[in-house]
């Protein structure tokens, strides 16, 4: 308060001084009245502006500072847009560009820059609010004219929200919002567009969605590439097995990933094609020991299963004891002793 009063010492005009004192006492209406009667009536205008009382501010500007009307209309429009009153906002953005009140030029470089900025802000506001009021063509045309990334994104998201997917995708691409425009182009099945922007896409979910779409269309090479980018290597294994009958490529991936689900898929593939030894090998690899033992029993591959188990780092003593019991029941005492030993049943061995 003391510092504020010190700032008032230099004011000589009584109504202006009284207006500031009323303002310090939070007597807003009295302050506006005093400013309006003072030698500095523009203070009343600035007070209304600061209080966001736009209708009063524009009424005062009409008589005190007509040159401020376009700028007040724009500021009012920005507040209306923020609160969701898009129709009123559009009207005020347009008022900000009215040729009869907007100066054609300004004195000085800085003032001219401010005027140019005002025009751009009004046009951008018209673009956004036109889209939100249903005039999509006008909004898109203005956005393209202004060529501003943020405006492209604002209008693109508004178009997307209103269901104009194609126009939204185009503007979001211009705004370099790669993930969102990619999602829309996938919906539109505009694959050439997707192919062009896919290197810029960061969302693993979108890479996976693109992969699924290409898989559904039978474009398996593209699907495999995108599943790789999405980190979904089990789906890559599935495509190699279900569509391309390429167990070799599938096995190369599994040797790196050691995926349980992928190894089960490969094991089923080998089992269906009569390659039971490979089926056993990949079940052991993925830790599905009991499933591998079941196939080995059924297909009389117990000895091979034992050899694979010995090479596995995931084998437990209990797994060897199952083998030992089996061989003991079959009277293969040497093999039974070997697996009792590996199962740490040294007395039985």
TrEMBL record:
It is found in: Cell projection, Cilium. Residues 155-332 form the IF140/IFT172/WDR19 TPR domain. Signal peptide: none annotated. Keywords: Cell projection, Cilium, Repeat, WD repeat. GO terms for biological process: cilium assembly; intraciliary retrograde transport. GO terms for cellular component: cilium; intraciliary transport particle A. This is WD repeat-containing protein 19. It comes from Culex pipiens (House mosquito).
């Amino acid at each position: 308060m003391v510092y504020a009063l010190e700032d008032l010492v230099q004011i000589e005009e009584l109504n202006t001084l009284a207006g500031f004192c009323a303002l310090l006492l939070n007597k807003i209406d009295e302050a506006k009245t005093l400013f309006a009667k003072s030698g500095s009536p523009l203070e009343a205008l600035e007070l209304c502006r600061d209080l966001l009382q736009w209708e009063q501010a524009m009424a005062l500007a009409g008589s005190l500072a007509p040159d401020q009307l376009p700028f007040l209309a724009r500021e009012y429009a920005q507040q209306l847009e923020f609160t969701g009153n898009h129709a009123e906002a559009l009207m005020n953005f347009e008022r900000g560009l009215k040729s009869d009140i907007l100066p054609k030029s300004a004195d000085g470089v800085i003032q001219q820059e401010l005027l140019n900025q005002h025009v751009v802000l009004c046009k951008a506001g018209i673009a956004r609010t036109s889209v939100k009021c249903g005039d999509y063509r006008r909004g898109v045309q203005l956005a393209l004219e202004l060529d501003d990334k943020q405006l492209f994104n604002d209008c693109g998201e508004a178009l997307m929200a209103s269901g104009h997917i194609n126009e939204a995708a185009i503007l979001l691409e211009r705004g370099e919002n790669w993930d969102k425009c990619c999602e829309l182009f996938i919906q539109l099945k505009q694959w050439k567009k997707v192919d062009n922007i896919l290197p810029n896409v960061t969302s693993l979910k979108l890479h996976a969605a693109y992969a699924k779409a290409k898989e559904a269309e039978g474009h398996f090479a593209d699907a495999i590439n995108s599943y790789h980018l999405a980190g979904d290597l089990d789906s890559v294994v599935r495509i190699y097995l279900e569509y391309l009958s390429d167990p070799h490529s599938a096995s190369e991936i599994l040797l790196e990933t050691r995926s349980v689900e992928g190894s089960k898929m490969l094991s089923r593939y080998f089992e269906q094609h009569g390659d039971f030894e490979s089926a056993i090998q990949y079940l052991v690899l993925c830790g599905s020991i009991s499933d591998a033992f079941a196939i080995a029993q059924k297909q009389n591959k117990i000895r091979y299963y034992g050899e694979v188990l010995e090479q596995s780092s995931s084998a437990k003593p209990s797994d060897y004891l199952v083998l030992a019991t089996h061989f003991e029941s079959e009277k293969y005492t040497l093999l039974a002793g070997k697996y009792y030993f590996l199962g740490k049943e040294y007395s039985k061995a």
